[in-house]
Amino acid sequence: MAKRDFYEILGVERGAGDSDLKSAYRKLAMKYHPDRNPDDPSAEHQFKEVSEAYDVLKDAQKRAAYDRFGHEAFEGGMAGRQGGGGFADIFDEMFGNFGGGRRSGGGDRRGGDLRYNMSITIEEAFNGRDAEIKVPSSVGCEECSGTGAKPGTQPVVCKTCQGHGKVRAQQGFFTIERTCASCNGNGRVIKSPCVACRGNGQLQKEKTLSVNIPAGVEEGTRIRLSGEGEAGARSAPSGDLYIFLSIEEHPIFKRDGADIYCRVPLQMTTAALGGQIEVPTVEGSRARVTINPGTQTGTQFRLRGKGMSVLRRSDRGDLYVEMAVETPVNLSREQKQILEEFAEAHNDSTSPQSTGFFDRVRDLWEDLRD
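RESULT FIELD:
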């Protein structure tokens, strides 16, 4: 079956610039990436097709050849990613890839980045804390110092690529560079593998790490521990560990940025007569709030500087206390009698909101009858 036009695959014009190519590739790669489409076998094919098209068109020399000769310019097994490390490398280059290594100098692979999800309470987010976490990861083999070679021996230079990790092939006036098949791009070959790690230079191990969580962190805050990710291949640099924080729900407090909201039930008598109540604060203390006579449900009191810590700053947000007037329940006979007497003595001035509301309702009904 004939290959589709690369410009058609990416959905761009032939004169598209680098930014347009990159934008088109980014959208399609995210759409068809196999990790996002585990139940769609065709997605992997489309992802490879998009990646191959982008790899050719982003390179000025390859693009010029393609514009002149089409797919024939790369016939004979020399197309696109045959000269690189695979379609996934393009995706990693643009978006990053937890658990997937990146190329470093000399052809060796930098270790993959790791992700660790950590849940903390709102109090811990307020105060900050030091924590220890256990992370399963690959570490450099101590037996061979991460080289993968048996102790007392060393990897030798690959004779095929002379240590470059890549080989070149000439086709007309084009030079195509490919990963060396003899050493898989490492530039070195292990003749006597290490027994402990079987030549991988890495072993699986659970690491215990200390992490400092600063005061004021928010939902989704990311903490980076440099060099604590997967070990690099054959003594290459290790990747990084990224800790993603999530804040647990609190039974009393609701957080909105640096501010905290708290809904407090208020006795009907206190709401009517006024008084003082004590409310909790996020640091574990209590704050006094003065209630004015006639306070209604929904009334908010603002306590300045009683909210959350702010990351890398010395100030704090505010605490907003919202009143919820509580209707009495389980009344005794005497209590009911007192309320009945109050109801008989009730007049419009003691309940202005309900009086005004029902006046408007009566007016509405009269208008409807007219």
